[in-house]
Amino acid sequence: MIDKQKKKELATNYKQSFRAMGVYQIRNVQNDKIFLAGSMDLDGMRNRFDFGKQMNMNTFNELQKDWTTYGGSSFVFEELDRIEPRDEVLLDPADLKSYRGEVDALLELWIEKLQPYDEKGYNKRKRST
Q1: Closest CA to 21 of 53, 6, 43, 49
Q2: In 10 A of CB 88, how many CB atoms?
Q3: I need a surface site. Which of 56, 75, 107, 115 has the fewest CB within 10 A?
Q4: Environment class of residue 81 by beta-carbon count within 10 Å: exposed (0-12), middle (13-18) or buried (19+)?
Q5: Domains observed in the chain
Q6: Torsion angle, CA of 108/127/120/84, rounded to 10 degrees?
Q7: Which long-range contacts (CB under 8 A, 24 or more apart) does 90-98 make?
Q8: What's the pLDDT band for 19 if we cut at 50, 70, 90?
Q9: What gap in Å lies between CA 3 and CA 65, rounded to an integer?
């Protein structure tokens, strides 16, 4: 049994550890349509996706129609780009905001490159303002 102090220390270390951030796609292997997204925790997102496939549950609204048609086994998670940490440990949670901006910028570049809309993908076009 882990004592309270050790448990608190482990939780703090986990919160301060750097998680892989970046851009990923979920690709339908039946029709090659893709859904692009960015995440502050790529490994966590991959785990969430894999768990959803095991349970045959989809948590991505954009994929629901094709998930129902083709089944979860027709979708694969693919990491496209990863942001390397400037530091191993994040001592200030505010540092995450700068990384969030990097993830968003990277996602915009990938969206521009792959154009995952209409017959090519599941992403929705942003409305012009």
Answers
A1: 43
A2: 8
A3: 56
A4: middle
A5: 21-120 (3.40.1440.10)
A6: 10
A7: 90/16, 90/17, 90/18, 91/16, 96/40
A8: confident
A9: 48
Q: Report pLDDT digits (tens) over 65-105.
A: 999 999 999 999 999 999 877 665 566 666 777 788 999 99
CB-CB contact of 73 with 67 (8 Å):
no
More confident residue, 59 or 92: 59
pTM: 0.82
Given a contact cutoff of 8 angstroms between Cβ atoms, the answer to whether 72 and 56 are in contact is yes
Give phi and psi for 90, each to the nearest 5: -100, 105
DSSP class per residue in the chain:
---HHHHHHHHHHHHHBPPPEEEEEEEETTT--EEEEEES-HHHHHHHHHHHHHTT----GGGHHHHHHH-GGGEEEEEEEEEPPSSSB--STTHHHHHHHHHHHHHHHHHHHH---GGGBSPPPPPP-
pLDDT at 11 over 70: no
Q: Residue 103's CB: how many other CB atoms inside 10 A?
A: 20
